[in-house]
Amino acid sequence: MGTFKENFASHWTDQSVRLVSTPSKAARSAFFYVQEVGHFQTLPGYFTEREHLNSYLIVYTIAGKGYLNYRNRSHTLVPGQLFFIDCMERHYYATDQQNLWEIYWVHFNGGTSRGYYEQFAKDSEPVHSLGIQSPVPDMLMQLIQLHNQKDFRTEALSSNVLVNLLTEILLIAYRPQPDFDSLPVFLPPVVSYMDKHYNEDIRLDRLADMFAINKHHLAKEFKKYIGFTPKEYVINLRINKAKEWLRHTSASVEEIAGNVGIDNVSHFINLFKSRVEMTPLAFRKKWHTSHP
């Protein structure tokens, strides 16, 4: 881990709000928790530059204009946009000098913050535009209100708001662009076919021929809209069906492997273990032990 570095000009109005929070031991072990949260109306010269801070940052632009430099890319920030970054990485953000920036923001950590960030960042830019009906600004206001008048409920309630906030941001990141706001017409029948024939030999070439689609286009659109490659989608179907057989029947592992379309039982066991983190027999034993 590198050395924490920070340079800033704390130029904001007297009406601005900045609330610092130190999480309890319980919050650190169990919750998502707020480190700082606020509402800034900036003044000329406001900026922050830092790296190696163990924190995640969400900033929503209410009004004015700001600038973000992150991962060697520059972004202009306008009303209705948010950014979500990992503060361990070098970053710089600042107000426009004429069109002064107004923002809601929260530094947070804990829980599975890292996992949420990695899901957000793997196929996504740090900056996203929100719709008019987005609940994100209200969620940030809720966090400010919770930490403005703290009581015994604050940490648990804040954790709940952070989970909802992060879920909403992930959905924004996953959401197709406006010109692709509905599934391509060929995808529902492809998915329906895979759902019904998961235990058969389903290959990309065969699907492409059956539905008269270029296989590269099919693979790209399937991943974009469904969230999995066709191969991974079939594997997940087979694992889920295998779980049902293990839970509700006495069929052998070899029989179940064949029933879900995997002829090689060793391959099935390895595949199951890689996805479920236990063998099929261990899964069956755990389920039957905990659910009499």
TrEMBL record:
<dbReference type="InterPro" id="IPR018060">
    <property type="entry name" value="HTH_AraC"/>
</dbReference>
<dbReference type="GO" id="GO:0003700">
    <property type="term" value="F:DNA-binding transcription factor activity"/>
</dbReference>
<dbReference type="Pfam" id="PF12833">
    <property type="entry name" value="HTH_18"/>
</dbReference>
<feature type="domain" description="HTH araC/xylS-type">
    <location>
        <begin position="188"/>
        <end position="286"/>
    </location>
</feature>
<protein>
    <submittedName>
        <fullName>Helix-turn-helix domain-containing protein</fullName>
    </submittedName>
</protein>
<dbReference type="InterPro" id="IPR037923">
    <property type="entry name" value="HTH-like"/>
</dbReference>
<keyword id="KW-0804">Transcription</keyword>
<dbReference type="GO" id="GO:0043565">
    <property type="term" value="F:sequence-specific DNA binding"/>
</dbReference>
<keyword id="KW-0238">DNA-binding</keyword>
<keyword id="KW-0805">Transcription regulation</keyword>
<dbReference type="Pfam" id="PF02311">
    <property type="entry name" value="AraC_binding"/>
</dbReference>
<dbReference type="InterPro" id="IPR009057">
    <property type="entry name" value="Homeodomain-like_sf"/>
</dbReference>
<dbReference type="InterPro" id="IPR003313">
    <property type="entry name" value="AraC-bd"/>
</dbReference>
